[in-house]
Amino acid sequence: MLYTIGDLHLSFQTDKPMDVFGREWEGHTEKLRENFRSLTPDDVTVIAGDLTWGISLADCLEDFRFIHELPGKKIILKGNHDFWWSTATKAMKFFKENGLDSIEILNNNCFFYGDTAICGTRGWFCPSENPSDQDKKIMAREVLRLETSLSLAGNAERKIVFLHYPPFYGKYYSREMVDLIHRYGVSECYYGHIHGSGRLLAFEGEAGGVRYRLVSADHVGFKPVRVL
To answer: Which residue among 37, 49, 203, 211 is least crowded, i.e. fewest CB within 10 A of its CB?
Structure first.
């Protein structure tokens, strides 16, 4: 089976208790561990960013060990709070050195689950009115990364996109991201980032022939969502 979930916000080595964000976050690591028990070693889970609060890879070792010990293969992508991230190459070297071989990184690449292409990138929020030069630069880079990922899918029977930031939210709309999703014939898009009352503005459902779903951990009850 293919699953997804976002925003684990682990903090085994940092002082960042998540229950300050609401009672639903109390004991959330145990909820995650329990809810992953039904998965098997053959399953794959895409984790849509914001994995850990650690500032450096060394600060995240126990968090990544927690992720590694969850059943199956994990494909991770960067979130806005993943401050440990410098390059995918350095992260994969760190995973290899620490025996975290069940974790792969989705960044300027594409994975396959049978005939289904797993594509994606972090994404970004770029204000539609008066965006800064920095916002425009970051968005252009994220659009390029998503196109690279989708182009590597080739003629895959099915293409699924995983993002951290939603491609649209409330009055926000990323035309570049949505145009790519449509141009490459993506069937589904899963994203995270949104929490609390902000979830009321998150779009879930079908738009333009594409099914969108929010999979932030608190939104899905800390249970991995079955995609296939």
So the answer is: 37
**How many Cβ atoms are within 10 Å of 96's Cβ, its own excluded?**
11
What are the distances in angstroms from CA 94 to CA 66, 85, 100, 184, 212?
Answer: 15, 11, 8, 33, 33
Q: How confident is the model at residue 20, as a pLDDT?
A: 64
State the pTM of this model: 0.95
Is 63 in contact with 91 (CB distance < 8 Å)?
Answer: no
CA distances from 188 to 2, 80, 126, 208, 220 (A): 13, 22, 22, 11, 17
What domains can be seen in the chain, in order of their start residue?
2-226 (3.60.21.10)
Kindly report, residue by residue over 122-172, the tens digit of the pLDDT.
Answer: 999 987 778 899 999 999 999 999 999 999 999 999 999 999 999 999 888
Rounded Cα distance, 6 and 60, in Å = 17
Q: Which residues, 6+ apart, have CB-to-CB distance to 139 below 8 Å?
A: 124, 126, 131, 174, 176
Helices 133-151, 175-183: crossing angle, 10 deg rounding: 10
Q: Which of 142, 57, 42 is nearest to 92 (CA)?
A: 57
